Amino acid sequence: MRAGPRQRGRTRRPAALLASSQPAGLMKRYLDYLWPLIGLVAVIWSVDLLWEKLKAEAGTDSAIQTLLEQGSLWDNIRIVAMRIGHKIAVIPPEAFLHAGLATLVAYAALAWYDRIALLHLGKEKGISWFYISLCSFVTYALSHNIGASVFSGGMVRYRAYTAKGLSAAEVAVLVALCSFTFAFGTLLLMGLVLLYEPEILRPLGRMSSWFKIGDGTARLMGVGMLAFVALYTIGSWLKFRPLKIGKLEVIYPRLPIVARQYLAAPLELAGAAGIIYFALPEQGNPGFLIVLGAFLLSFSAGLLSQVPGGVGVMEAVFLAVMPGVSAPAVFAALLIWRLFYLILPLVISLPVVLAFERAQLKRSTRIAPPP
């Protein structure tokens, strides 16, 4: 039998729809290649800036400067590494203790992110603080190091929270709210830093003329950030209708949820910045507010670069924002931050993941029906 122009069970898509979807698919394909390329360029540029800065600082002594100029690349790396190693060696033991406590504060606040999201969903009952803390710890330990925080964070939370009865849609909301809480805290603290210390952006102009920002403009940026935070709070307080952005619908959380975000997000960011602050030398230390602002700028730049751990990008931006502190000392403090905030949590989290997956496997085999 000859088939007619319309086959049963199939519908022909209109030509206009096909034409409109093809450019969108092409654009998505280009973006999939563009973002990694931008990240690679950012890393190369940042590493070059970082290397020149470290070499310049290491070569303040005329004898060392001669060695840097006449020696090979390997000799230069060895000299710079020795200077950084010396800066780490002179960090007092109490600074390491304080950095460790700041790390605990940061990760405790990150666990609070998950708890806040569960409260928003009304799913906090039956899930202990210990379980939430372990899930959050593993999530951020992996995502901070892998770089794809939404993907890796979503996968870990999906495995953990579906085991506690949450649906996939609820886990997606939880991940989104945790990410928003971080962004909320960044805007809140960065807005305050720009209001009180607008000159923090001045040194960025040395990296590129694109980044030349006057103090007045910096203050306006701070006001804009705080205005967004205020609008979000007012929307929650007055119970605004959900905000629609295309297909995305943003529902304002209840005011008690927002109040918790005001506490948890700054606490986490202050704890993470505190690791660097305690590891910096007293001489030339610009104070916690400047260190906090430098951390927010550099950490955000690292996230936007899509580079795992923001390697290179974070260091370059941080060094640019703090020209008054010795570059090897800043680099040493950032190495301590990576050790406490990234590497040690990753090492601890891997056995936790293996233990959880083993328990899940035992549970699934126990409840599986006999053949």
TrEMBL record:
- Keywords annotated in UniProt: Membrane, Transmembrane, Transmembrane helix
Q: Please indicate which superkingdom the organism of origin belongs to.
A: Bacteria
Q: Which residues cross the membrane?
A: 33-51, 88-109, 129-151, 171-196, 216-240, 261-280, 286-304, 339-356
Give yes or no: UniProt keyword ATP-binding: no
Q: What is this protein called?
A: Uncharacterized protein
